[in-house]
Amino acid sequence: MNPGLYFATGKKARDLLYKDYAQRQPLQLRYQSFDWSFDFSCQIEEILPGLNTVFRVIIPDSGEAEVQYLRDYVGFSAGVGLKANPATGFDPIANISAAIGSSLVSLGADLGIDITTRSLNKFSAGLSLNSAFLIASLTSSDSFDSVKASFYHPLNPPTRTAVAAELKHRFSVDATTLTVGAQHALFPFTLMKARMNTDGKISAVLRQDLWQRFYISIAGEIDLRDSNNIPRIGLSMALKP
C-alpha cells in the first residue's frame, strides 16, 4: 500500500511521451554531426527492509548516489551528486523527495539544493491518482513557474496499447503546450510509439528487444515550424541486469 517515490508521479505518461525519443540531454559530447551521452545506473535492493540504494552516472552530464525508503503510506528518497556546469565544471547538489498516501492516491514534493551556494534551486510538488484504467497526475515545478497535468490510459494491456496526454503551462512566458501520444506492440518484442504537440513537433520511435534484457531504439522527430525542416534521428541502447 505504499505510494512509491515522488519520481513515479506521472511516470507512465512521461515514459510513453518522452522515453527513448530523439532528445538532447542537458549536456552532450559532440563528434562531427553526432551528439552522444552515456547513462549508467545501478540499484541495490533491500539493504534493510524497505531500504534501497541507487547509483547513476550520465556522461558527461552528472552523477548521483541516492537512498530510497519505502514503507506503508510513505516513500522517501535523498541523494547527493555532481551536476555539470559549463562555467565552473561540476557543482555539488543534494536532492530530497517524499510522497505520502497509498497506491491509489498520493501527494509528494521534491527539493533540489545547490550545496555551493546553499540555495534552493529546484522545487516541485504533485498529486497522483492511480487506477486500473486511468493514471492521472497534477504537478507544479520550476518553483511554481509551471503547472503540468497528465494522464495515461491503457487500452489493451496484452499488446501494451495505450494513450497519454500532457498539458503544460509556463507562467513566466505565458505559454501552453499540449502533447498527445500513443503506443502499440506490433510484435511481442517490438514496440512502436508516436507523439505530437501544439508546438508543431511530430515524433516516432521504434523499440526492439533483442534479448531478454537488452533493447535498441530508433527515433525520429520533425519540427513543422522549422524553415529548414531537417528531421532529427536518434539511436539508443539499454542493458538491464
Summary, kept brief:
It is built from 1 helix and 17 strands.
Task: Give an account of the 3D structure.
Helix content is 3%, strand content 67%. It is mainly β. The strands form 2 sheets. A 15-stranded antiparallel beta sheet has the order 3-4-5-6-7-8-9-10-11-12-13-14-15-16-17, with helices on one face. A two-stranded antiparallel ribbon has the order 1-2. The longest helix has 8 residues, at 11-18. The chain is globular. The model has no long low-confidence stretch (mean pLDDT 88).
Instruction: Name the average pLDDT.
Output: 88
- What's the multimeric state? single chain
Q: Using the CA coordinates, give the radius of gyration.
A: 19 Å
Shape: globular
Termini separation comes to: 27 Å
**Strand content of the residues, in percent?**
over 45%
The succession of helices and strands, N to C, reads HEEEEEEEEEEEEEEEEE
> How many individual helices?
1
Structural class: mainly beta
Poorly predicted segments? none
Number of DSSP strands? 17
Sheet of most strands: 15 strands, antiparallel
> Strand order of the main beta sheet, please?
3-4-5-6-7-8-9-10-11-12-13-14-15-16-17
Specify the helix fraction band: under 10%
Blueprint (SSEs and pairs):
Blueprint lengths: L10 H8 L10 E3 L2 E3 L1 E11 L2 E9 L2 E10 L2 E12 L3 E13 L3 E10 L4 E12 L4 E7 L4 E11 L4 E10 L4 E13 L2 E8 L3 E11 L2 E10 L8 E8 L2
Antiparallel strand pairs: 1-2, 3-4, 4-5, 5-6, 6-7, 7-8, 8-9, 9-10, 10-11, 11-12, 12-13, 13-14, 14-15, 15-16, 16-17
